[in-house]
Amino acid sequence: MDQQKTLGQLATENPAAVRVFERLGLDYCCGGNQTLEQACGAAGVAVEEIETWLQAIPPEKVVKNWQDEPLFALIAHIQDTHHAYVRETVARLRPLFDKVCQAHAANHPELRVQNDVFNGLAEELSSHLMKEEMVLFPYIIRLEEASLEQRPAIPAPFGTVQNPVSMMMREHDSAGEALRELRQAASGYALPPDACASYRELYRTLLEFEADLHQHIHLENNILFPRAIALEAAISER
Ligand SMILES: [Fe+2]
Ligand SMILES: [Fe+2]
What we know:
The protein is built from eight helices and no strands. By secondary structure, it is an all-alpha fold.
């Protein structure tokens, strides 16, 4: 395995690597520009350990390599799987957070910090998903259609696709930071001895939410956005 490749590149080439990075807490999406060597060094993980984990994963046909699929299919997958998940889970976590805070915040004041960070993240994500669905994704679909039909792309009100992409990537960095704050406030999601069933469900769902958002941002930052930028450049060169 090439240690000088970035985690983002490795996750793009081998979708199974995502599970290994997630398990070892290596950031392959928002901080995906670190090389494997740098990321392992910072996390105190041996590169050999990653290789052992990767070999232990059976080759899975269900993990699609989105690098080879049409962009409209990738966009449909992102919306149907990840955007739908964010909306459903935020709606489910809000009342659960309130319930757990009411019962436990007196003994565990860090729950209020987590609730505030989560609410801020949920607000940001709500407008972020809307911008992708209303502006950026439809433009990328039009770019792909223009490319297939060998005609020029319709000019976009935002100039080049690079502009909304840069904005979305800044928002991804901010979401990644909120996930780190949440994890820190929750002491890595270690449950206290007095945790009730709702508390356990809250932490289990937050962990799942974190992994889903990492995967979601990876598909956009490392696959969809670079491919859209390259496609726009190829069309304008014709
Ligand atoms: Fe998205
Ligand atoms: Fe996004």
